[in-house]
Each structure stands twice: as structure tokens, then as C-alpha cells.
Here is the input.
Amino acid sequence: MRIAIIGGGISGLSAAFYLEQERAAGARLEYTLFESSGRLGGVMFSDRIGDCVVEGGPDSFLTEKPWAAQLCGELGIAGDLIGSNDDQRITYIVVKNRLVPMPDGLMFLVPTKLVPTALSPLFSLGTKFKMLGEWLHPPHAAETDETVAQMVQRHFGTEVVDRLADPLLSGVYGGDAASLSVRAVLPRFVEMEQKYGSLCRAMVASQKKLAEMRKAPGYKPKPLFSSLKGGMQQLIDAVVARLDAGSLRTETAVRELKRSGAGWELVTPVGPESFDAVIFATPARIASKMLAETDAQLAADLGSVQYSSSITVTLGYEREQLKACPPGFGFLVPRSEGRRMLAATFVHTKFPFRAPENKALVRCFVGGAKDQEALKLSDEELTAIVRRDLREIAGVEAAPWFVRIYRWDRAMAQYTPGHVERIERIGETVKRMRNLAIAGNFYKGIGVPDCVRTGKEAAQQMAALAREQHTAKA
Ligand SMILES: Cc1cc2nc3c(=O)[nH]c(=O)nc-3n(C[C@H](O)[C@H](O)[C@H](O)COP(=O)(O)OP(=O)(O)OC[C@H]3O[C@@H](n4cnc5c(N)ncnc54)[C@H](O)[C@@H]3O)c2cc1C
Here is the structure.
């Protein structure tokens, strides 16, 4: 069976890797991966500047989601996995140009400790009273989807939407709380509200369970984030090294896809080519265009997934130049602060192996769902914006010894209300078609582990089909 994979980011590469594994295990299949750009990896890209590792896209992945670390294990690079320096984890929120640490006991955006929350200057007195009252919130089973902002507002008020929900979600999705679906983005919160009513009580209960687990013999704490010594690019390089080079076609954009008998005809600048099956691992809008003739509903669902853009600006300093910077992982900037910078990570504190002892790296984020226009800014303008914000917020006066900017146009899928139903419909159609599979960051989670998972599941779907067809022929 001949399979085309369209898109060579981590989702498409994972699909190729697991197809390669299936082939080694006896599945009768071959694959060709088409990537429109000149390099493989999509938004996952690391650079080396001096002795520093600079990430263009993702800098790590959540350790609790297993698929990326599993892939590293299968690639033989698990020994190079590194964890975030969680003992130094302090995240600040900018409030009126000042860096205010998130209070102890704040779990995502739910306060679980009374005293640190009561003493924190992050919240006004009104919000603190609302947080206290939240403990009495009755169980609630929402019939329809709502935005994260709506749910957080019901529980904690608008200040928590502005100072926590919005900046935290902007860091993960490049989107804002008022347009992201709570069912898709925070399904655990929906369950907690159904069962407990109060998110605070639910979170405290889950903390207690965790504390019990930690007491179990042999328990080893895991870092919050994992990465690789050589940067996330190491994962891309390791996958590519395990693939058949002849099956990888870069600078080959797929332009059209048509049904051809029971299979597919795919058109690239080189010409048409026939395949038995196709795995899409592109942004949803690309798949939508190509599937318009094949299935209008599927194309409409794919086409309705919106994307936001992201720009990372990394500045390199001498460590001593950042003396004014407080310790910790970095800070988030609520939109109400009126700045274009969304967040900054103190990379040299967050991870080992990123900068030598005497150097420091600050990675700033600009853009997001509410500032698509930022993509039009020149390097000079972006540098000026983040340098001004760093000076005014964190007292960084010094000139960096390098600045590296990466622009990612419409790269972050936005899980808007109705996303769960949309994805269910897409899943059902694809299951019915059988020789079409979908992977990518709009499907089952935006982070790297979920992208790997979608690539793996797409490969498994195709391998099962290849085995079935082979058995039918025999
Ligand atoms: C700045 C930034 C920071 C992030 N930080 C983190 C993080 O710290 N942790 C985390 O877990 N996640 C993070 N993410 C999210 C995560 O990195 C992405 O969701 C994931 O890497 C997306 O992988 P993908 O393969 O689905 O898509 P992409 O990487 O976008 O790859 C899609 C590929 O398809 C190709 N393509 C498009 N059209 C065609 C066509 N017609 N023919 C052939 N090829 C085509 C594109 O060129 C591209 O290479 C971050 C994302 C960004 C942008």
C-alpha cells in the first residue's frame, strides 16, 4: 500500500517514523512525505549561537503527556532528555509595570492555599472575597460549550480572566480566554465543576491524591517540562535519521488532491502521482482546501479551525547584565497592561544546557490572536518593542549581544467553542473513509506530545488497513 504524508512538521514526521516501524514489523506499505518548505520540522527548530541553544518554536513539552518522551525512547535519545529546573520555578505577572509572583498554591489559575492568595498583591480585595466564596460554588453541568473566560469569570471574576486566564492561555495557544472553548482547552475544569462545583475544592482534592501518590515507595518526581540537551531540533534530526531519505521530498508542496478510483491522486509541481492512502499533517486550512471536492462537510469543519500567529524574539546577554532581573522562569503580560509583548522566558534559568554560566537568554513572545499585525513589523521594530518592555518591566538596560527573531504565520490552532464536536465529526468521517488520516496540532491537543500522538495514531490506522488489504488479497 502506498501512503502519502502531506506536511513535514513533528506530526507528519511522527507518522512517517511509526509507518517505518510498522513496515519493519511486517506491514506491507511504503510512504512518501511531502513538505512544501526546504526543511523538515515545521515550527520545531533550534539554532546554535555561540554556545547557546536558541529555540525558534517549542522549547519543551509537558512531561505528563507521554508520547514525545516515548518517541525519544524509541529513537534512542532518551538519555538526552532534560527536565526544567523546577526548584527555580517562579512565574511573574506584570501588574502596573511591576513583576508580581504568582502566589504559592496557584494551580494553573485556581488558588488552593488561603494565606499566600490572601497576601498576594496580584488580586484586589474584591477578587479575594470572590475566591473565598468560590469554595461554596454548587455543582454545575453545562449543557453547552462556553469560553474559558466565561467559566473563569463565573468562578473568580474578570480580574482573574485578565491577569491569569488570558496570559496563561496566550502562552500555550497564542489565543485569548474569550475565544477558547473550555471543553476543548480545559476539559478537566468542566469535569471538576460537574463533580465538585468549586474548582478550588476540586483542585485541593486532586492535590491530596497527588500527595498520597508521592508518599508511595519508589515515587520519583517528574519535571514539569522536558526538552533535549541539543534543543528540540534534536528530536527532528533523530526522526529524520531513521527515515528512508528517498521517501522524503522537501520543497514539494502538494497543490491538489483528488479521488482516483479507491485511492487518491495527488498533484505537486512535479506532476500527478497516485497513492492508496493519505495522511494530512498540515494546518487544517490546507487540508480543507484540498478536500473540498471530496467531502464538503469535512472540508467545512477543517476550514473553520482558526489559527493565530506567533513571533519569538530571543535576546542574548552576559549573565551579569541581567542582575536587575528577578529569579525565576519569566513573566506573563496581561493585555490590560497595553503592551505588545505577551511573555518572556528566562531560558538560562528554566533549562540546563541552554547557555553557558556567564551567558543569559531571554525569549520574548509577540503576536497572538489579538495582534496578527505584529507579523508586519520589521526586525528593528520588534527588537525595539521587546527591549523597551524588558527595560520598563524588568529593568534590563543593557544591549543584547545577539537578537534572533522567528515569525510563525498562522501556526497555532485555536480551539474555539464547538471544537470538540467539530473534531468528533472530522474523526467519524475519516474513520468511515479509512484511507484518509489526520494529524496535527488542531486535532487532539496543540502541544508537541499530542502532535506525536496524532502522527502515531494515523500511522497505526494506515498499517491496520495495509494488513487488512494484504490478508484480503492473499
Ligand atoms: C512559537 C511557538 C512555541 C511553541 N511552544 C511549544 C512548547 O513549548 N511546547 C509544546 O508542546 N508546544 C509548543 N508549541 C506548539 C507545537 O510546537 C506545535 O503545535 C507543533 O510543533 C506543530 O507541529 P505540526 O507538525 O502539527 O505542524 P507544523 O510544524 O506547522 O508543520 C506543518 C508542516 O506542513 C507543511 N505544509 C503546509 N502546507 C503544505 C503543502 N501544501 N504541502 C506540503 N507541506 C505543507 C508546512 O510547511 C509545515 O512544515 C509552540 C508553537 C509555536 C509556534
About this structure: The longest strand covers residues 306-318. Residues 6-12, 34-37, 42-44, 57-61, 253-254, 281-282, 286, 310, 312, 408, 411-412, 440-441, 446-448, 451 surround flavin-adenine dinucleotide (CB under 6 Å). Residues 448-473 form the longest helix (26 residues).
